[in-house]
Amino acid sequence: MECISIAIDGPAAAGKSTVAKQIAKKLGIIYVDTGAMYRALTYQTLQENTNPEDEKAVMETLNKIDIRLAQHEDGQRVYINEQDVTEAIRYPDVTASVSEIAKHPLVRKKMVAAQQELAKDNSVVMDGRDIGSHVLPGADVKIFLIASVAERAKRRFEENNQKGIPADLHTLEKEIERRDELDSTREASPLVKAEDAIELDTTSLSINEVTEKILEICRPFI
Ligand code: C5P
């Protein structure tokens, strides 16, 4: 099989990572959760009390750590150096700050280079905000997942409950709206649907239905 690249973008909590994981498993290819990379850096800046507005200070933090996404049977694990931060990066403090960190152009430049490197010699399904538009503009398949804010908050609420992460539905709705606004209006590679991406509204679809639809779109490339 030639290398295939699948880009899955969309707003917060639209189901991107769950669907991307299923696709990676079905196709036996690598899953790259780019949001986890920005979350890991955010976690580290919070540990170090770095001012999120100070791009230079944020870059100093980024330059001294190694962020690693490791493929495990039970999904992807995220490491900062040797520390497993897979669960810690999903907590509300990280979620609340990540868009401020991810807006910095120098941060994005370094993250994007690492993401492109991962896709260079591997078949990948990569999810994020700027994959189809910026990271992998030549991706074979580009999907833009959307769903209503209410539905996205409900899904995130259930997911957080399962993981034991504190959650309140109304707060989640507000947080999702705020993050979408920040991610869509930043100057450096904002959240945008690539011109050639296929938009899928998942509001009334199950995860399995979304996965099947995307696999169907991928069929000519596999
Ligand atoms: O996908 P997830 O919700 O975990 O992403 C967390 C945050 O990371 C997003 O809200 C966004 O600010 C940032 N992000 C980004 N570009 C990506 C992936 C995530 O700016 N490709």
TrEMBL record:
Keyword annotations of the record: ATP-binding, Cytoplasm, Kinase, Nucleotide-binding, Transferase
Reaction(s) the record says it catalyses: CMP + ATP = CDP + ADP; dCMP + ATP = dCDP + ADP
Coarse class of the protein's main subcellular location: cytoplasm
Class of this enzyme: transferase
Protein name per Swiss-Prot or TrEMBL: Cytidylate kinase
CDD domains the record matches: CMPK (cd02020)
Sequence ranges assigned to domain Cytidylate kinase in this UniProt record: 6-218
Subcellular locations according to the entry: Cytoplasm
Pfam families reported in the protein's UniProt record: Cytidylate_kin
EC numbers, comma separated: 2.7.4.25
Annotated source species: Oceanobacillus jeddahense
Binding of ATP, residues: G10, P11, A12, A13, A14, G15, K16, S17, T18
GO molecular function: kinase activity
InterPro entries documented for this protein: Cytidylate_kin, Cytidylate_kinase_dom, P-loop_NTPase
Family: Belongs to the cytidylate kinase family. Type 1 subfamily.
